[in-house]
Each structure stands twice: as C-alpha cells, then as structure tokens.
Amino acid sequence: MLKLYEGTYDAQKKLNQFEVLDTIRKTDVMSCPEIAEKLKLSNPTVINIVKEFVDRKVLLYAGEAQSRGGRRAQLVKLNESAGYVIGVDFEIPHITAVLTDLKMNVIKKSKAILPKNADDTVNYLVKCTKELLNNVKINKENIMGIGISLPGLIDRQRGISIIIDRPIKWRNVDVKGIFEREFHFPVVILNDANAMALGEKMLGSHSKGLKDMIYVALRSGFGSAVFLDGTLYQGQRGLAGNIGHVTVNNTGPECSCGNHGCIEVYCNERILEKKVKDAVSKKNIKDNEDVFEAARKGNLHALEIVRETGEYMGIGIATLVDLFDIRDVVVGGTEVSVRGGQMFLDIIREKAKKCLFFSSEDSSIDIRLGDIEEDAGALGAAIMVIEESFRKPEV
Ligand SMILES: [Zn+2]
Known about the structure:
3 domains, 5-stranded mixed β-sheet
C-alpha cells in the first residue's frame, strides 16, 4: 500500500514533504524554484524532496520551465497512477463502486443492486468491491484505501454505521472494521450527502472556486452538506449541515428517524414516486410519463407534485442559508434535479428566497444545479480517501 510520508523520522522534513506534495497536487505542473518561492523553502530543500518523490514514482519530471535567465528549472507534476483509490456508494438498493487514479480518472466502475434476499448486506458490499478489484489490472499494492458513502446515522471516527432504516435494518455495523479485515487497506466511511457534496465540489464545474457552499440533494432522503473555507465541515460524527431531519410539522407523519414531520418526510424520491403512482392510478398523469415532463407540458396535477417537493427543498435551503450565512447553494445533480432541470430549480429558488430572513432585502443568494449527474457519491467517497492520504502528517 502506498504511504506518502514514510521513511523519515525528521518532523520538519515530513512537514516540508507534505507542503511540497500538497502544492504540486493542487496545480498541474510547477517548477522547483516556484515551489520554493511559494513555500519559503530553499531551492536545494525542494529539489531534494522532489527527487525523493520522483524516485518513489509519486512525482514525475515534466520537462523544463521557460528560462528566466540561467539554467532552466525542471517542472514536476503528480504521477496520477502512483496510487489508486476505491469509492463505494450505498444508496439502497443501488451500489456503485469506482476505482480511480489520483487525478480522479475513473479506471473501473461497477454497479449492482442489493438482492432482496441478501441476508448479509455488508458482505454483499464487500463482494461488489472485490469484483471491482478483480476486474482491473493494476498493482494492488498501490491502492491507498477505500471510501464508503452510507445513508443514515454514522460515526465516522469509529467507522460505524449506527442506524440505517428501511429497507434494511442496520444497527451498529462496524463497516470500517469489516472492510479493513477483508482488504487490508485503510477505510473511511462518510455520510452520503457529504460524499455527493465532495464529488460535486471537486469535480463539478458549477461549484468551482466556491470556498463556502451549501449542497443539497434529493435521494431516498433529503441530504445536505456544508463547505466552510473550502473544506467539507463534517462535525463530530460526520452529519453536520444535515437539514433533512429538522422538524417542520411536529404533528406530521412519522419519519424513518422516529420523529414526526421532518422535512424529509415531505421531500424525498420515495414520496415523490408514491405521489406519482397515486396520480397515475387516478389517471391524472399518463402511465410511464415523467412527472417533470408532464409538469412542463402544463399538467397541473404533475406541477402540484413537483411544486410540493421543490418548495420543501426551498424551505430546507433557506434554513441552511440563514444558519450558516452562506449564499452559494448547489442542488445535487441527482436524477431528480437533472429531470427537473430549470423548472424545478425555479420552484426551489422562489420558495427559498421567500423563506429567507429579511428576504425582501436580500437578493444575494445564488442557487444553481450541480453537474455531476451520477456517481457523485462514489467519486466523493474516493476523494475522501485521497484527502486523508495526503493529509498533513502528525509529527
Ligand atoms: Zn426524520
């Protein structure tokens, strides 16, 4: 398994190695003098660190920089195939697994559906991950870890899935432990909304450059996440910014979490599908017609269903904007958002703006659709492994 800061007990050197590597991986190519100048290190220090990483094939020389007079400096870049990571997204019953290189190029992807009769769900996840690995021709020793995106309540520090309700019932499943014993790579787990947000933030073009950002996504639940100063804020257990289980009606229907009237009760893919089914059975919507398409064509029943969902999303967004005072919001590129498109976004925007604190005085909120249409959760889980692997070493 590739470990980046091995082979030195010198704390200062380890930190310098981290700074150099972190600087290079966040740009495309850089010369040693540029790195030295940026990090306020001496040129020979940077050259030595770069040489060590080149010898270990973590970095590559990438030609010579334009001369500023004197000897031309060598350019260096990250060797994207120095390491690989695995991301697994469990959106019941769908399982998506990806294997990517360090620049998030997808080398292999697999999708599976959890069989209804699967008696051991976590082992089925293990099996899918093994199949992904068995079908790639890479040096397994270069795998840096596995990231697993999970719904429900998690404890990310301990790697435990505390609760998943419906349709499977998990209580205190040691996902990290089970995967680590099976694969012998480091394993991180994260909340699915956080994973999708991370995928969108790092790979989506609509959230590029945003330091503070709110992310929401409609899936089997209503997920959300928050970036503060460019970093995903996870909180103590990995659930920060989760607005789906805020009560909006304490006498409302029971939620999967056991409370009543959470936003998520009114706003998730399952409830949307159920409303569409009811409308189809009353012949208000044609069988097999997409509810968003029907709404766009002027079907008032379809529009009502879409509006209800979008408005609850708007309420959730306004609450998050007021809590964090962050004006940039990205709505996850999930299937619903893609199918809903601009019409759905307009409904969400209108409601969110109405519900904001001093809304009439404030036009600064910017809500946009994300553009990672699928696999955001698996990619985000893989990104988390890279972030953890390149993390500042503890010295
Ligand atoms: Zn709830």
